Amino acid sequence: MSHAETLFRPFSSEKLQLKNRVVMAPMTRTYSPGNVPNDLVVDYYRRRAEGGVGLIITEGTIVDHPAASGYPNVPAFFGEDALAGWKRVVDAVHAAGGKIAPQIWHVGAIRRPGIDPGGDTPGYSPSGMAVPGKVVGHAMTQEDIDDVVAAFAKAAKDAKEIGFDAVEIHGAHGYLIDQFFWDGTNQRDDGYGGDLAARSRFALEIVRAVRAAVGDDFPVIFRFSQWKQQDYSARLCETPEALGAFLTPLAEAGVDIFHCSTRRFWEPEFEGSDLNLAGWARKLTGKPAITVGSVGLNADFLPEDGTANFNAGEPASIDNLIERLERDEFDLVAVGRALIANPDWANKVANGEFDALAAYERDMLRELR
């Protein structure tokens, strides 16, 4: 394995300074009964900060909208109790020398009625279409769209007020924002439907509202993906030119950093170039980019056989990752499952203690680690 000094260079952009290039990837754990972060959640994030992570991006946190939640015990990002819980998380991470951003989230058509908060509220989606395997939901009106945009802005403002260092908007993986991007779920005939530029309008309104809520100096991260929960071969953009046309308006609207979700960081995004999705995002927009996807493990994230719970894996070389980072293909590296198995993954890698890294097993995601 590489000695990895490059991974531990400080990162500095106009709005964000980090002690190294290691980011904790957001991973849903459903460990917040009543949708309130508790002592276990505080300790979970504190351990990763103590373990050397430069920037923690939290698990997805639901915005203040009755249809935002799709899973039980997911933490909310609204309400006095939940925000007080997150304030404790922020303080613990800062005391351990780390920085942290919440990922703010609306699941859209993924939702099934009966999940709290929200109760019998159906899933909201661009066209009322069901995501494959889900029940048919509610087609969003203009009022609904305006309410959700406002909910994202409110969550971002609250994040800044309680001391978070940045905010990430979840626009990936077939959830609500991505459902507007994807023509398979967005068949609207108004200004939010049509070609990809029109289907991006909802996301652009959210980004602009978030930017207005947090001001010019607070970092806004945007997570996007080509693949969807329902279709791992899906592509929003088939060419670099199309990707540039998609990402540039988001950057102009206020995105500071693109978090480019892939299943395997080493795979080239387009023929004729070795650049991965983060590499292309950085090249096309000039914005810093976070790469992610099976970092540090020998088993792919979400394999073709549909194995659940973030497929298990053994520690694997990061030499290829380091080589790409050294040539500035991307700026930051998000680590997921390896950080579940090793809260001190960053410190162990920095110290060359590769033999001390534990394998990841599926059950670890639900353990009190």
UniProtKB/TrEMBL annotation:
Q: Name one Pfam family in it.
A: Oxidored_FMN
Q: Sorted alphabetically, which InterPro entries does this protein's record hold?
A: Aldolase_TIM (IPR013785), OxRdtase_FMN_N (IPR001155), Oye-like (IPR045247)
Q: Which domain of life is it from?
A: Bacteria
One GO cellular component assignment for this chain's record is:
cytosol
Q: Give the signal peptide as a residue range, or say none if absent.
A: none
Q: Which CDD domains match?
A: OYE_like_5_FMN (cd04747)
What GO MF terms are annotated?
FMN binding; oxidoreductase activity
What's the protein called, per UniProt? Answer: 2,4-dienoyl-CoA reductase
Organism whose genome encodes this protein: Shimia aestuarii
